[in-house]
Specification:
By secondary structure, the protein is mostly helical. The chain has three helices and no strands.
């Protein structure tokens, strides 16, 4: 929805039942315990190759979307991540999850 907020003092409209935010609860202090690092992708040759595989497949997929008879146009989106597959076709790491099944909010 951020695309709706492109300039100051612009009226924004949401349809009935249209989501307008996403709550992502985290335990207080959990982010403070993380030490981020910046590294070169080339430091991990396997990861770099997976990225190149993904990038190439994404480029081909996007081009193929323009052809209505292509598999890409029929699929509408790439499903490798959702299926737990690396771009090379190997399984994603142990514990990979593409979806969380969280408890609903309890009414007050």
């Amino acid at each position: 929805m951020n695309w709706k907020f492109t300039r100051p003092n612009q009226r924004v409209h949401f349809e009935v039942d249209e989501p307008f935010c996403h709550l992502f609860p985290l335990q207080r202090g959990s982010l403070a315990s993380v030490t981020p690092m910046v590294r070169k992708l080339s430091d991990d040759s396997d990861l770099e190759q997976e990225f190149r595989n993904w990038s190439e497949s994404r480029n081909v997929f996007n081009v193929d979307l323009g052809n209505p008879t292509s598999k890409a146009a029929q699929d509408k989106w790439q499903k490798g991540y959702f299926k737990g597959m690396n771009p090379s076709g190997t399984p994603a790491p142990e514990g990979h999850r593409s979806r969380l099944r969280l408890q609903p909010f309890k009414p007050v």
